Amino acid sequence: MLAIVLGVSLAAALEAAEPERPATPAQSLLPVPLHVESDGGALPIDRGFTTAWTGADDPRVAAALQRSVARLEKRLGHPLPAPRRAAQARLVVEAASAGLPVQSVSEDESYRLVVTPREARLTAATPLGIVHGLATFEQLVVSEGGRAVVTAVKIEDRPRFAWRGLLLDPCRRWEPVEVITRTLDAMAAVKLNVLHWHLSEDQGFRIESKRWPRLQEMGSEGHYYTQDQVRSVVAYARERGIRVVPEFDTPGHSTSWLVGYPELGAFPGPFELVREWGIFDNVLDPTRDRLYEFLDAFFGEMAGLFPDEYVHIGGDEVMPRQWNASLPVLDFMYQHRLRDARDLQAYYNRRINEVLARHGKKMMGWDEVLHPDLPRSILVQSWRGPEGLAQAARQGCDTILSDGYYLDHMLPAAQHYGVDPLPAGRNLSPEESRHVLGGEACMWGEFVTPENIDARLWPRAAAVAERLWSPAEVKDVDDLYRRLEIQDRRLTDLGLTQVTSYTPRLQRLVGAHPVEPLQRLADLVHPVRFYRRGHMRSYTTATPLDRLVDVARPDSAPARAFRRAVDRLLLQPPAQRSDVEVRATLTAWRDNHAVLDPILADSPQVAEARTLSRDLQELGSLGLRCLDGLAAGQAMAPERQAEEERLLDAAERARAEVEFWIIPSLRKLVLATARQAELKTTSVEEWNAALDAVVTRLEAQKLARER
Ligand code: ACM
């Protein structure tokens, strides 16, 4: 069943899937609401546009309305009347009840928004619905005939999943508070509601402890959040309907604890902060009571800072080497009938769970914590594969999905969008399915800095946000990309830098030279995927991240446009084909090298891209050869095809830690030219589908090899 009902014609709805056509504002919402009706008309926002809040007393309602009004003023360029507490205004928002003192995972987030040409009314059960409804309202504001208007709509909306998170890792690379707060702004704009704040790692301990001050004094090189900053972030998040779940990664990933407190370790130390990326041997020693005394005091202190009911204790990638090499640890395991490191970790988790429970907290951990001995109250975060999620749910534990949502893998938005926490056909009972609370996008910190983190998070995190909020049936990839582009502009208005930093960062690579030739190349490459980058060169916490690979994007609008143009071309009957558009693009690629190469030769930071630039020239020429062959109706000879494919294979290799986006479309052009004769026996559509099948299979094989 289609859960979205758009009160517009079917033809218009179909047009919306075509990225190059304009869509109505109601079709530009992200995430797509559960139910939208829109039958024309609009509410003008003029200088007299009044706003008011009524209903339950919760300061978040007025604050959210004030933020929305301030943003509207910025867009309009003139002031608006200040929001008032009143029952009448052009826009009235009303929460039926104040929210819970601590936002809960089960709290009602639904809202109803009705906009008519005369007025707008937003109602919700709690202030959370008001925050989400105002985000929707702001997305509906457009310019029409020289004035600002809000599209008339009737929207009933609520999330599909209650847990819609984003993990930030300021441990591997430091991210100051401004990065966290602007990320919270962006999260609120797409209705994400959990900040998973990964606060301790081998490379750094990032929060102030007054009880155990050597944690930050010796474990952070001065980069940590003070307790006042943490309180301000938690309050900032709460105002925006976002919970903050802290993660303290133990008993592995724990070197930064041990630098100041080596007595907590399974090895005597001394310990130094780790400066490389990877998985390291240092572990806490779970056999000693003093560890639990330490953690009891620590979590007691943290419980006072983080009101959320959950605390994440990590639990991932625990290396057993130090446990297995320690006689006291082995003796303890023998005494307690713990067969292996896994049992020992489960013992640790049980005790940590008791510590957290004493402080009123529920325990959450990565999927390695799953063990039959653990109580069902723990929440399991699945990252190693979807099976962890299903196992946790079958075991009666609440669970969330992150496998498939790792934004640091540098995969395109479409890839993450296709991952569903509860896909059709998943073999879970309704009761088990209820344990699947949602998911979290993860942005591990190895290759992000305050300068590029926005571009690494956005707009792709918005694709995950939609997957977790909108009905499962909302999954049109072209339409997602169309709306992500709009979302990018909205986030730019909020102060996010993913759009605005792109050209200036490329400019920096070429100094005073013109930037366009480099941008033409950069638009067509993406950083290598998964964790291959770390294997291609040695990186440390101090390596600057300002090369082409750090600016190149994990999605490419020009590459998608080229793919569509090739498809349009090949779907035309041969006699009516026009290759003007594709030919112009290929010619520009071919001719770029002559301009770019001297620039690269004079720009040490980006000289590594010279072979890529030369390959782009080759790829342009290859494409043009195909167009000529298609235009002449001349099938490519098998030897020629093999030669072109060798060229494509060579160009497909990663260099400078980036790869071309455009190889699949060029493979398709080569195949099309070689297999033209088939058009005598099949329709253009069947022929095109057959070519697609080959290219798609090759792409899938490549992705599997990289993984
Ligand atoms: C993880 O990515 N190690 C949770």
Total of DSSP H or I helical runs spanning 4+ residues: 27
Instruction: Bin the helical content.
Output: 40-55%
Low-pLDDT runs of 5+ residues are 1-21
Counting helices, strands and paired strands, the structural category is: alpha/beta
Terminal Cα span = 35 Å
Strand-residue fraction? 5-15%
Kindly report the spatial arrangement of strands forming the biggest sheet: 11-12-14-15-16-17-18-19
In total, the number of strands is 21
Largest sheet: 8 strands, parallel, barrel
Gross geometry: globular
- Overall pLDDT confidence: 95
Compute the gyration radius: what is it? Answer: 27 Å
Q: What hetero molecules are in the model? A: acetamide
Keywords:
707 residues, alpha/beta, seven-stranded mixed beta sheet, binds acetamide
Structure notes:
The protein is of the alpha/beta class and about 700 residues long. It contains 27 helices and 21 strands. The protein is about 45% helix and about 15% strand. Helix 2 links the parallel strand 3 (about 50-55) and strand 4 (about 85). It starts with 9 loop residues before the first helix and ends with a helix. Mean pLDDT is about 95; it is low at about 1-20. Bound molecules: acetamide. The site of acetamide has 4 residues, from loops.
